[in-house]
Amino acid sequence: MAERWLRNVRLECVRGDITNQADIDAIVNAANAELRTGGGVAGAIHRAAGPALEQECRPLAPIRPGQAVVTGAHRLPNRAVIHCLGPVYGRDEPAEELLAACYQQALELAHRHGLRSVAFPAISTGAFGYPVEEATRVALNAIAGALPQAPAVTHVRFVLFGAPDLAVYERELESLEGTEPGD
Ligand code: ADP
User: Fold this and answer.
1) Could you read off the pLDDT of 101-157 as tens digits, one per residue?
2) 92 lines ligand 1 (CB under 6 A)
3) Is the pTM of this model over 0.90?
4) Domain-embedded: residue 182
5) Distance between CA atoms of 38 and 45, rounded to whole angstroms?
6) Of 45, 91, 138, 160, which has fewest CB within 10 angstroms of its CB?
7) Cβ–ligand 1 contact at 69 (below 6 Å)
8) Domain of 162, in residue numbers
9) DSSP 3-state assignment of 15?
10) Is the CB of 166 under 6 A from ligand 1?
11) Is there a domain that residue 101 lies in?
12) 20 domain residue, yes or no
């Protein structure tokens, strides 16, 4: 676990399962365009939320790479799910901008809905093939850039499934420009 503060916002990374973040207002889904269940994060979220999540998602689909939409959390222990469609690496371009847009739009939606804490998985780094180190830098820079426009959000958690991904996040979080609590 590593933690940084950006002004009064707590950024942390932990190893775990995105569906098991009961203290967080909104969890982020690494969604598919149809907002359906599937493998990876989307499968885990839809299984835990129950079939009513897919029903709520149906009229919102399809979404474009870089886009985010918000729904209720149904049987999940959170207040909302923010569904982001990351770029497929090597296909959706410009990949970096599209991936950054996911994080920026997710924070903007959280702010607008009064969701103070948000947990992200490593969007696009599974089935969509985005190299983890590059994706981590894009994610952290996008979030650092978007936080000033999303002042309702005071806590951002990155939930990594595997130890190697957590190690990358810990390293990149350490090297992010930041401040200590109370600064
Ligand atoms: P994408 O299609 O955007 O690449 P995936 O769901 O395939 O999304 O994977 C994104 C990342 O999330 C991968 O690093 C994968 O190992 C991880 N992951 C898979 N399931 C979970 C889960 N339940 N909680 C957190 N991370 C997960």
Assistant:
1) 999 999 999 999 999 999 999 999 999 999 999 999 999 999 999 999 999 999 999
2) no
3) yes
4) no
5) 9
6) 91
7) no
8) 2-175
9) strand
10) no
11) yes
12) yes
